[in-house]
Amino acid sequence: MKGYRILHKEAISDVTKLIVVEAPHVARNAKAGQFVIIRIDEKGERIPLTIADYDKDEGSITMIFQEVGKTTTQLGSLKVGDIILNITGPLGHPSEIQNYGSVICVGGGVGIAPIYPIARALKEAGNHVISIIGARTRSLIFWEEKLKAVSDELVVCTDDGSYGRKCLVTEPLKEILSDTKRTISRVWAIGPAIMMKFVASTTEPFKIPTIVSLNTIMIDGTGMCGGCRVSLKEGAKFVCVDGPEFDAHTIDWELLLRRLSYYRDEETYSLQRYKHKCNLDNL
Amino acid sequence: MSNLTKKQRMEIKRQVMPVQDPKTRIKNFEEVALGYNEETAILEAQRCLQCKKPLCVEACPVGVRIPQFIKALREKDFTLAVQEMKIKNNLPAICGRVCPQETQCEGSCIMGKHSSPVAIGRLERYIGDYELAHRTCPLQKTTSTGKKVAVVGSGPSGLTCAVDLGRFGHSVTIFESLHVAGGVLVYGIPEFRLPKRVVHSEVAYAMDCLGIEIKTDHVIGRTLTLKDLTDEFDAVFIGSGAGLPQFLRISGINLNGVMSANEFLTRVNLMMGYLFPEYDTPVKVGKRVAVIGAGNVAMDAARCSLRLQSILYDSPCEVYIIYRRSRQEVPARQEEVHHAEEEGIVFHYLTNPVEILGGNNGEVKAIRCIRMELGEPDNTGRKKPIPIPNTEFEIEVDTVIVALGTSPNPLIFIGADELQRTRHGTVVADPLTGKTSLQKVWAGGDVVTGAATVISAMGAGKRSAEDIHRYLIG
Question: pTM to 2 decimals?
Answer without folding.
Answer: 0.94
